[in-house]
Amino acid sequence: MSTDFRRSTVYQIYPKSFCDTNGDGLGDLRGVIGKLDYIQKLGVDYIWLTPFFVSPQNDNGYDVEDYYRIDPRYGTMEDVEELIAEAAKRGIGLMFDMVFNHVSTRHEWFRRAMEGDPYYKDFFFFRKGKENGEPPTNWESKFGGSAWQYVEKFDEYYLHLFDVTQADLNWDNENVRKEVQKIVRFWMDKGVKGFRFDVVNLISKAAFEDDDAGDGRRFYTDGPNIHKYLKELHDTTFGTDAQIVTVGEMSSTSIENCYRYAGRDTGELSMVFSFHHLKVDFMGNEKWVLVPADFQKLKNIIFQWQTGMAEHDAWNAVFWCNHDQPRVVSRFGSEGRYWKESAKMLATIIHCLRGTPYVYQGEEIGMTNTDFTEISQFRDVESLNHYQILQDKGLSASDALRIVQIHSRDNGRTPMQWDDSRYAGFTAEDGAEPWIGVNGNHDRINARQQLEDADSIFHYYRQLIALRKELPVIALGDIEPMAEHHPCVFAYRRTYEGHELIVAANFYGRTGEWKEAPDLTGFKRVIGNYAEESRPEGGVWSLRPYEASVWYR
Ligand code: GLC
Ligand code: CA
Predict the structure, then answer these.
(1) Catalytic residue numbers, as ranges
(2) Helix 457-470 and helix 339-351: axis angle, to 10°?
(3) Ligand minimally distant from the alpha carbon of residue 165
(4) Cα separation of 120 and 169, whole Å?
(5) pLDDT digit string (tens) for 321-370?
(6) Residue 251 CA: which ligand 1 atom is closest?
(7) Which of 384, 388, 390 is nearest to 372 (CA)?
(8) Nearest CA to ligand 1 atom 4
(9) Does residue 1 have a pLDDT over 80?
(10) Torsions phi, psi of 12, nearest 5?
(11) What is the Å distance from ligand 1's center to 466 Cα?
C-alpha cells in the first residue's frame, strides 16, 4: 500500500450491492472479505466502504442510527475487524464513510430531542414557522419538497437538507462536535486508515432566511464556520496520524473553498470530491431534465479544477462514478459497438490526471445503467420522490420515467456482476431475490469473463493503476490542458523533472482529426485502447472512435 495518497488509487464499495454471502439478497461485509483477492488484483491502495452502521436504511445507511454499531444486515463488529485485518494483509487500507451533517431520526440524540430534552434539542435545528403558517424558510430538501418538517408537539420545525428521516446536526453546538470527534477516534483505534466525510461542506449553516434566488443552498454551502470546524476535527482526530487519508464530499462547492479544504498545509483534509463536472448533463443545478452532455463545459470544468488546485497546492479526488451517479460508460461513452473502447477511454482520462483516482465497483468491468422499465423496480428515495414531483409539474408518467432512468442513483446501485449465473454471482442462485434488480446484461458483462480476457476493461484499469505507481509524472507532475476548444479531443500534458506525458482521447464514436497535434518524436506509447498505435502524421492526428492513448518521454 502506498501511504502517499498522491500515488494511491481508491476502490469504492457499496456493500449492499457488492456481494451477498448469506442469501438474504443484501450484500454484506463477509462478501467484501471474500472479494479482497479480486480487489487486490486491481492494485488499489484503499477501499472506501459506504456506511454499514445501524440504520433504518431509508437512504441506504446514510441515515445513521448508531455510529458505534454494525447493522446486523451487513454483519458484526468481528466482521469489520476481520475485514480491516485481511485488507491490511493485502496492503489495502480501509476508508470509512462518516455521515456527520445529519443523523437518522432514530438516532438516540434525535429521540431524546423529541422527548423535549433541551440538551439534545440543541443538537438539531428546531425553529418556529413563519407567522403565515409556512416553514421557517423556503429551502428545499435535496431529495425534493421542503427542508423543514413540522413537529406538532413543539409547534416547531426541524431542518433536514436530505430525507425527512435525516435530521441536520447543529455543528455550532460544541457538544455535537465533541461527539463527532469521539466517533472518529473510535474508528481510528480500530485501525481504519482513512475517512470519507459525507456532504461535509454543508455542516455550517449561515442565516435561516428565505432564498429568493434559489433553493437555499447558498445559506448552508461552504458556510461561515466550515474551515474552523474542519480544522478542529483535523487537529483533534485524524490530524494526529500522518498515515490517515481523508476526502471530503463537497456539495455545490467553490474552488476557492477547496483550495483550503484540501491545501497541502491548510490542516483540513487530504482531498476533495467536487461535482461540477458531473452536472454537464443538467440544466444548471436541475438534474431532473434530459439534456445532452456538454463536452466543452466538461473540459472547461475539469481543466479549471486541475490547474486551479495545482496552483494552490491543493489536491483533487478524480472520478466519474460513485453510488450517486449513473454509470459513466452509459453517460459519456457507449453501451453499443464501442462499449469496451469507450470505457477504456474514459478510464484513461481520469487515471492520468493530477489527483487521486477513485474506481467505483463495477466501473472496472464497464457496468452500464440499469435496464429497468418500470418505476416499481427503482429503490432510491430521491428517484421515487422526483418521479412524483415531475408528474406533479405536469409531465406524463412515461416522460418522468425516462428522466429517472437516465439520472437515477440506482443506475450505480444494481448488484455487482461477478458472473453469468442467475443473480450474477451477487447472491446464490437459490438465494433470495436481490434487493434491487440485476442488470440483464450480466451474461456479457461480468468479472469472471474479464479476469480471463487479457484485453478486458478490468485489465486495462489494472494497468492504469500500475502506471501511476511506475511513472512519478502521473502522480506528481504539473498539468497543462491541450486542444482546449477541440470539439471531440480531450488531451493534456503532464510534466515532472524532465519527464513528459501526453494523454490524447477522442471523446466520441466517430473518427476525429486533431490538427496541430503534438510532435511525438522520442515518445513511446505506454498504454492505449487500440492494439495498433496511431500517431500524428504531418501534424494531424486522426483518432479512431473513442481512441485513447498515453505517451511518455
Ligand atoms: C451524500 C451521499 C448520498 C447521500 C447523501 C446524504 O451525497 O453520497 O448517497 O444520500 O450524502 O447523506
Ligand atoms: Ca447478506
Answers:
(1) 198, 249
(2) 20
(3) 1
(4) 10
(5) 999 999 999 999 999 999 999 999 999 999 999 999 999 999 999 999 99
(6) 7
(7) 384
(8) 62
(9) no
(10) -95, 130
(11) 30
Residue-wise pLDDT for 94-131, tens only, equals 999 999 999 999 999 999 999 999 999 999 999 999 99
User: Between the CA of residue 196 and those of 90, 238, 459, 533, what are the distances in Å?
Assistant: 21, 12, 27, 39
Q: Residue 54: helix, strand or coil by DSSP? A: strand
Name the residue type at position 523: F
The number of angstroms, rounded, from the C-alpha of 470 to the middle of its chain's C-alpha atoms is: 26
Query: What contacts 249, CB < 8 A, 6 or more positions away?
Result: 196, 197, 198, 199, 200, 201, 272, 273
Instruction: Report residue 510 as a C-alpha cell.
Output: 466517430
pLDDT digits (tens, 9 = 90+) for 460-472: 999 999 999 999 9
Distance 538 CA to ligand 1 centre (A): 50
How many other CB atoms are found less than 10 A from the CB of residue 100?
A: 23
Backbone φ and ψ of 344, nearest 5°: -70, -35
Cβ contact 102:160 at 8 Å: yes
Q: Which ligand 1 atom is nearest residue 63's CA?
A: 12
pLDDT tens digit string along 66-87? 999 999 999 999 999 999 999 9
C-alpha cell at 298: 466538461
Is 475's pLDDT higher than 90? yes
The 10s digit of each residue's pLDDT in 487-535 is 999 999 999 999 999 999 999 999 999 999 999 999 999 999 999 999 9
Q: By the 8 A CB rule, do 51 and 58 touch?
A: no
Atom of ligand 1 nearest to the CA of 62: 12
Q: 2 or 46, which is more confident? A: 46
What are the chain's domains?
7-90+316-370+408-465 (3.20.20.80), 108-168 (3.90.400.10), 174-288+305-315 (no CATH), 479-552 (2.60.40.1180)
Half-sphere exposure of 380 (CA within 13 A, CB side): 24
Q: How far is it, in rounded angstroms, from Cα 439 to Cα 377?
A: 11
**How far from each other are the two terminal CA atoms of the chain, in whole angstroms?**
27
The Cα 195–Cα 94 span in angstroms is: 8
**Percentage of the chain modeled with pLDDT above 70:** 100
Exposure b/e, 378-406, CB count within 10 A at least 16 = b: bbbbbbbbbbeebeeeebeeeebbebbbb
Residue 137 alpha carbon to ligand 2 centre in Å = 42
